[in-house]
Design goal:
It is a single chain. The protein has six helices and no strands. It has helices spanning 3-33, 36-58, 65-69, 78-96, 98-119, 131-149.
Length: 150
């Protein structure tokens, strides 16, 4: 594995580790604000401010209107998907706990991922569905069962 690949793997591991931490932080905020949705909104506002600061600091050029107009309609839904994820994590983490919540999220993520890969949707490279991939997803669901049960 070359250094660039290793750095990407480490970044993915770090991002994955942040997911249950973010859910716990947002859940704590929900307790203080008495609203899961308010906590999710605050999370997005703070995240948006951070991203604006990063974009400005990096002096990234603004995209032209033409580029934005030609984007497929579904490419605009990422924020909605992220809002659903954050709101769901704020609601679920105090009820399910970090391990069960993340295990179920992971099982859902991998199920969607093998479908996206199989059809090559949303700019993903096409990878055929295989017995090994299906078995891997089924093992993830078995893991969800074990984590929830024990």
């Amino acid at each position: 594995m070359n250094p660039a690949e290793l750095s990407m793997i480490l970044m993915a591991v770090a991002a994955g580790a942040m997911m249950p931490i973010q859910a716990g932080v947002n859940s704590t905020l929900a307790l203080q604000t008495h609203s899961s949705l308010m906590a999710a909104m605050v999370s997005f506002v703070i995240g948006s401010i951070a991203l604006i600061g990063i974009v400005l600091a990096m002096r990234l050029p603004m995209p032209g209107i033409g580029a934005l107009k030609t984007a497929p309609w579904w490419s605009w839904t990422g924020g909605l998907l992220g809002a659903f994820f954050v709101a769901a994590s704020v609601i679920l983490v105090p009820k399910l706990g970090a391990a069960t919540m993340m295990a179920t999220f992971l099982a859902g993520q991998l199920t969607a991922s093998v479908v996206l890969d199989h059809f090559g949707w949303a700019t993903f490279p096409q990878h055929d569905l295989s017995l090994g991939r299906v078995a891997g997803v089924l093992l993830l669901f078995a893991g969800v069962f074990l984590i929830r049960r024990y």
